[in-house]
Amino acid sequence: MKKKKKILFVDTENIGIQIPETIKKRYTIYFYLHNRNILPKIYPACMNERVRLVDLSTNSSNVKNEMDLVLLAQLSICCAKYKKKRQYVILSKDKGYDRPIELLSQEYGVKIRREEKDLKEFLGKQKVRLALPEPAKEEVFKPWIDQDLFRKCKNYNEYRNRLGKKKRNEIRIDPIAYRGANNAWIEYDPYQKVWIPYVSSFALKAISPNKELAIVSNRLKEYIKNKERNC
After folding, report:
1. How far apart are the C-alpha atoms of 20 and 121, rounded to whole Å?
2. What single-letter DSSP state applies at residue 94?
3. Which of 85, 115, 141, 173 could be stapled to 186 by a disulfide with Cβ–Cβ 3.0 to 4.6 Å?
4. What superkingdom does the record give (predicted)?
5. What's the whole-number average pLDDT of the chain?
6. pLDDT per residue over 125-176, tens digit each?
7. Contact 45, 130 (CB under 8 A)
8. Residue 129's pLDDT is what?
9. DSSP 20
10. pTM
């Protein structure tokens, strides 16, 4: 018998941020984040097509329990859309979800449950791409990706060119003042899974792309310092 598809809702505020490297096709995962310091570490792992990253750090309303409210709103939308065609699981230690789960289950006649497990525990024995503590130092990071466009394009150059000027500005990481203007930055290539330095909208060939954001950031800063020193 074919197993029913499941939609998972991950409350990272109390359940952890581990993301398995491989996720079976029957799962769709809504992964909620509120702490911007975590994003640079998990962003590459969120490129898995089964994961829907819900970044609440960029446009947070600072409302108490905002993540809980957004999660329950998304759960309600999914229940209304898919009804019994899906099973629904909230991964959280927060018992406050239990009453809404009961109400939604009765209203739509669907199976919803809460489990106090992270993704690694829930999905079973799988290779985990990330199991890191939150960085103590705040980092400048505003990740964003158009998931539909990402799947349509063959490479990052095509994806980037089709974004439009406004969206290209939003994906810039660690902007650096260079000769009086903020025209040096870093972007993440989800196709090659590397960080790429840019100067004035062109990829900087003097620095090779790297899978580690910190390495590219340090090299770009050193490059800018040398350029400024030689001016």
Report:
1. 10
2. -
3. 173
4. Bacteria
5. 82
6. 554 444 433 444 444 444 567 888 888 999 999 998 898 887 887 778 777 7
7. yes
8. 44
9. B
10. 0.56
Q: How would you class 150 by CB atoms within 10 Å of its CB: exposed for 0-12, middle for 13-18, buried for 19 or more?
A: middle
pLDDT value of position 131: 40
Establish how many alpha carbons lie within 13 A of residue 35's alpha carbon, considering only the half-sphere containing its beta carbon: 16
* Contacts of 192 by beta carbon, 8 Å cutoff, 6+ apart: 156, 209
Instruction: Give, for 191, the enclosing helix (H) or strand (E).
Output: none
- Dist CA 126 CA 195 (whole Å): 26
**Rounded distance between C-alpha atoms, residue 31 and residue 124, angstroms:** 18
Q: Is 110 left (phi over 0), alpha (psi -120 to 50) or beta?
A: beta
Helix extents (H) in the chain = 12-15, 39-42, 66-82, 98-108, 119-123, 147-152, 156-163, 165-170, 213-230
Tokens, residue 26:
């029957």
Query: Which residue matches tokens 């130092």?
Result: 137
Residue 25, classed as helix, strand or coil, is coil
Going 186 to 188 to 189 to 193, the CA torsion angle's sign is: positive
**Under 8 Å CB-to-CB from 67, ≥6 apart: which residues?**
11, 12, 13, 32, 34, 56
Residue with tokens 């899978």: 211
Q: What is the pLDDT of residues 58-74, one digit of tens each?
A: 665 667 788 999 999 99
Please state, in angstroms and rounded to a whole number, the distance separating the CA atoms of residues 146 and 131: 25
Taking the C-alpha atoms of residue 7 and residue 218, their distance in angstroms, rounded to an integer, is: 39
CA distances from 195 to 28, 97, 111, 206, 207 (A): 26, 38, 41, 14, 10
